[in-house]
Amino acid sequence: MESHQRSHKPDEAEARALRGLAAVDEVLRQPGVAELVGPYPRQLVVDATRAVVGRLRREILAGERRVSSGDLSAELLVPWVQALVRVATTPSLRCVVNALGVVGHTNLGRAVLPQESVEAVLRAAANYTDLEMSLETGERSSRQDHVHDALCTLTGAEDALVVNNNAAAVLLALVAIARGGEVLVSRGQLVEIGDGFRIPDILRESGAELVEVGATNRTYLHDFAAAWSSRTRAALRVHTSNYQVVGFTAQPSLADLAALAHERGGVLVDDLGSGVLTELPLFGTEPSVTQSVAAGADVVTFSGDKLLGGPQAGIVVGRAAAVQAMRRHPLARALRIDKLNLAALDALLRLHLDPVRAVQRIPALSMLAAEEQQLQDRAERLAAAVLAEISAAAGHIAVVPSVARAGAGALPITNITSRALAVRPRDGQAAAFARRLRLGEPPVLARVQDDHVLLDVLAIRDSEVDETAAALAAALA
Questions:
Q1: Which of 27, 77, 42, 70 is nearest to 56 (CA)?
Q2: 332 pLDDT exceeds 50?
Q3: What pLDDT is stored for residue 195 in this prediction?
Q4: Cα 325 to Cα 403: distance, rounded to the nearest angstrom
Q5: Domain end call among 361, 381, 397
Q6: β-strands 299-303, 267-273: how paired?
């Protein structure tokens, strides 16, 4: 029985349309539909045909489609069925060209993996692996063993643990360490990170009670000391990675906060959000993971897919007692990292062991470290490739200065000097031109500014210049 309820009685025109609507069997006999069976499962083709006919019937009954009976013949429904079958069998996830000037764009999957990580994922996906098996003893082992030593070496921590993202890492830390007790947080650090992730909400879900400390712009060590009670289990420092409070501000040093927590029998959790393992001039204002560990934080959490340039992962390093409490908690299994991301992270961390090689081999780092002349050359090569395919009359093209971003909530006020291709289409319709680029092959994502479309080249790799130029030329033509 159809769940759709008719909103009115069909009039004469709608009744004629219903009578003229081809039957499912009639559409299936059309050559253009019949030839789909073979390349595609028969049931899929039948279901697609029923879906097309059924939707047209519902729209006619609801008064949403005014057509003549001749528009609904079996022959004319063939392209609809073909399109629906193609959509159903085409992977939804598509590769795009990132010309937005945002390196770690969350909507585009954040970091592009280095080739070493890609190859590690392919090997792990195509084969059985020793994910949780000790080859030496033949007994079950922990998947954490594969990245434990590299993380401890890179950060100087006693212990390490990896889960599926940084929000999960923070939640697991609070559940394992502070459930049923209080957690002290500076008012200036009650952040909301993308998609509604708020520190107060995470604390509530962890079963710990939030105690706000200090003021929005100034919090001192004595504020934490005064707020500490017999129920306090931890102090939480949250790095404001996606905004900054400037002006008259104050926060206690991490070392002082750690000393207070340890003196009172509690722990210090430091949520870095992004996390930095490689020294770049651009990262000068970002707290590094090694600094947090050295300052005495018991638990330090950060993301694998932001400034590390790797897969989605929540990384935990710190003191053995606190990390072990997280590892033993039942929630750890629900939040554990999968084998493909673990393989990618393992390869990535080994690149970070050599900082120079890391910048060369990890795409996110090499993009952020790119020199202006390198970007100028790339933009000019892109412009020349476009002009080689189209007439100059198709639109105005020029290389212009641009301002790019690290993205993913990292380095929120840091402007990255870049270059962009400014394109003004012949008809002056910049938004329509940007849409054509998005719907092209490959899809190219760019910014609209006034009557121009700007294609920032910071995150366009050299290997993508030619295909980007072809997509631009096609959209302009």
A1: 77
A2: yes
A3: 64
A4: 44
A5: 361
A6: parallel
CA distances from 41 to 29, 37, 74, 352, 463 (A): 16, 6, 21, 47, 37
Reduce the DSSP state of residue 23 to 3 states and report it.
coil
What type of residue sits at position 344?
A
DSSP-based three-state secondary structure for 280: coil
Asked if 228 and 255 sit in the same domain, the reply is yes
Region of 109 (left: φ > 0; alpha: ψ -120 to 50; beta: rest) is left
pLDDT at 411 exceeding the cut of 50? yes
User: 245 vs 240, 257, 391, 412, CA distance in Å?
Assistant: 8, 20, 50, 11
Mean pLDDT (whole number) for 358-368: 95
Q: Of 47-61, 181-195, 284-298, where does mean pLDDT reach its minimum?
A: 181-195
243 and 316 share one domain = yes
Q: How far apart are CA 119 and CA 234, in angstroms?
A: 41
Torsional sign, CA 412, 414, 419, 422: positive
* 302, 273 Cβ separation under 8 angstroms: yes
Strands, E assignment, 307-375: 314-318
In this prediction, residues 308-325 reach a mean pLDDT of 97
Q: How many domains does the chain have?
A: 3
Query: What is the domain range of residue 129?
Result: 115-361
Joined together, the tokens standing for residue 465 give 């210049």
Tokens of 376: 């100028």
Q: What does the pLDDT average to over 323-327?
A: 97
DSSP string, 384-419: HHHHTTS-GGGEEEEEEEEEEB-BTTBSTT--EEEE
pLDDT digits (tens, 9 = 90+) for 123-145: 999 999 999 999 999 999 999 99
End-to-end CA separation in angstroms for the chain: 49
Both 383 and 341 in one domain: the answer is: no
Quick one: DSSP state of residue 71? G
Task: Select from 43, 73, 89 the last residue of a domain.
Answer: 89
Nearest to 225 by CA among 197, 279, 164, 184: 184
